[in-house]
Amino acid sequence: MKIAEKYLWFGSGILIGGVIFGGIIINLISIGTAATGWLSFGKSPKPIFAQAADLQQLLPASPELSKKCKEILGLKEIWQPADKTNYGFRRPKDLAGGRIPNQPSLIVLHETVLPLDPTLKLFSTPHPNDTQQVSYHLVLARDGSLYRIVADKFRAYGAGWSAWGDSTIRHRGSKIPAAAGSINNVALHISLVSPADGAGNSDGHSGYSNQQYSQLAQQVLLWQLRWGIPMRRVTNHASIDRSHSRSDPRSFRWHLFDRAWQVAAKRCNVNARYSIDARSR
Ligand SMILES: [Zn+2]
């Protein structure tokens, strides 16, 4: 399958690349090492994702509870690792040496547009060129199978120019225009395999399977427990995209996700503070 690249340049050198498959723009924006997001705050950086007053605080992380819940739910991952060119490490500092947020604290939902096999092949293919580097942490097949592409501790290249509210992370210092930035340094990315009628760039399609909603809800719950992420930090690519070119996952129904999440949370006896509309205390 022929891959062509689409390049957009912003300000002084931030490169954002999309990938076109057979003329169809898929929803992966690659931000490689040349445009890894982080924001220079000088010597006293403000840790925007973890402590900003206008954002809900992170909850205490409970790795043991997450592990126990995973056993209860019987959630299995199929290891399908990305090539090392397609992901990076979560950077602790910017170029000026200022500390930047790098803890997983935002869960971002996507859809693949492509079928499962070419999606997995895309990630396992070496991409020396920054503009072609793409990955998610997990891909969720139509039958509910969960493919692990990148470990949580690494930064998957799932979103290009992006922000959570007014918060974003840049790595090229304070002289870069405010327009650029990425949330990849703090994001956990999971992508739903699109239905056959979602292969194009239509506004919508027939949606996702019950198995996908069920497994997605379970995985989101496990991530919430593992990293202390409240439901208000569970979002989608369309919401965090700032390039006005991403609208995935199309035809996603939050009420179906919520219903599946409640089932999973009940099985694991999870505290309501992880649920929708829960407020931090
Ligand atoms: Zn996406």
Topology:
Elements: E1 3-10, E2 14-21, E3 24-30, H1 48-51, H2 63-73, E4 77-79, E5 87-89, E6 106-111, H3 116-124, E7 138-140, E8 146-148, E9 154-156, E10 187-192, H4 210-227, E11 234-236, H5 237-240, H6 254-267
Parallel strand pairs: 4-8, 6-10, 6-11, 7-10
Antiparallel strand pairs: 1-2, 2-3, 5-9, 7-8
Helix pairs in contact: 2-4, 4-6
Zinc ion (ZN) binds at residues 27, 110, 237, 246, 248.
Summary, kept brief:
The protein has 281 residues and is an alpha/beta fold. The chain contains 6 helices and 11 strands. It has a single domain (3-274), classed as Lysozyme-like (3-Layer(aba) Sandwich).
Structure description:
This protein has 281 residues and is an alpha/beta fold. It has a single domain, classed as Lysozyme-like. It has six helices and eleven strands. It has helices at 48-51, 63-73, 116-124, 210-227, 237-240, 254-267, and strands spanning 3-10, 14-21, 24-30, 77-79, 87-89, 106-111, 138-140, 146-148, 154-156, 187-192, 234-236. A six-stranded mixed β-sheet has the order 4-8-7-10-6-11. Strands 1-2-3 form a three-stranded antiparallel β-sheet, with no helix packed on it. Strand 1 (3-10) and strand 2 (14-21) form a beta hairpin. The protein is globular, with a radius of gyration of 18 Å. The structure holds zinc ion. Zinc ion (ZN) binds at residues 27, 110, 237, 246, 248.
Reading side by side through the largest sheet, how are the strands ordered?
4-8-7-10-6-11
Distance between the termini: 51 Å
Low-confidence stretches: 1-53
CATH classification, class level: Alpha Beta
Shape: globular
Number of helices: 6
Tell me the CATH architecture. 3-Layer(aba) Sandwich
Ligands: zinc ion
Q: What is the average of the pLDDT values?
A: 81
Number of domains: 1
**Alpha carbon gyration radius:** 18 Å
Q: What's the main sheet like? A: 6 strands, mixed
